[in-house]
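From the pipeline queue, job 12 of 40. The input is one protein chain; the requested action is below.

Action: predict structure.
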Amino acid sequence: MLRQKISQKINFYLDDLATPVGKLINISIAILVIASAVSFVAQTYEISEITRHRLNLLDDIILGVFVFEYFLRLICAEEKLKHLFSLYAIIDLVAILPFFLGAIDVTFIRLLRWFRILRLIRLVESKALFVNKTEDIAILLRILFTLFAIVFVFSGLVYQIEHPSNPKFHTFLDAFYFSIFTMTTVGYSDVMPRSDAGKLTTVIMVLTGIALIPVQLGELFKRLVQTANQSDRDNDIMKNSVCSGCGLSLHDADAEFCKVCGTKL
């Protein structure tokens, strides 16, 4: 019984953003995700061997924390099989696969690590994160993160695939620039992938951009239109609620009496 209570408490804090302990845990994990992403990007530039070694050490520490967190979530989950095949658990597993595949294929590991940014989806999808914000702002932030995360992942994949043989992809910024133009279907002829894997990734990138961007922006515009229509209805009600006693028209939509002179509206 005591073990079950401890597991439930740990499981609660791992997903909680309302209590101080839950916020500390989840924000710390988010900081580690961002730190690892910054480390990956930094290593695509010309840096000293000492700095590169320190970044690799930092990445190993972060990876160890994520492995511990993954198994802690699994152990404390009430329905372990359901948790194992949930979207969040699959994303977490992809993020820690380099820990288990370290001796197999270095190139494959470097491809997988770019997916780690997707771990922030759990945080962005949390309602507690946007408790003090309007629904439209929450949706806008989710859309922006979704777009950024997809572009970031594809940029990392293209860079990792093309960099060894294509001088056009010298740094992460080159790949990021290419991804932006590709996903928006604008195109940029001076930068093109050479390898078959790079070309296939580019095709998937274009299809993702076509499928993702219109849907995300359509949802945003839909929310904005609904908000505008609601504001117009509220304004119409307020305009019709003019006090016959003092002439005040700035009343709440559900007001029955004038807030200045008390005359029935």
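Job complete. The mean pLDDT is 79.
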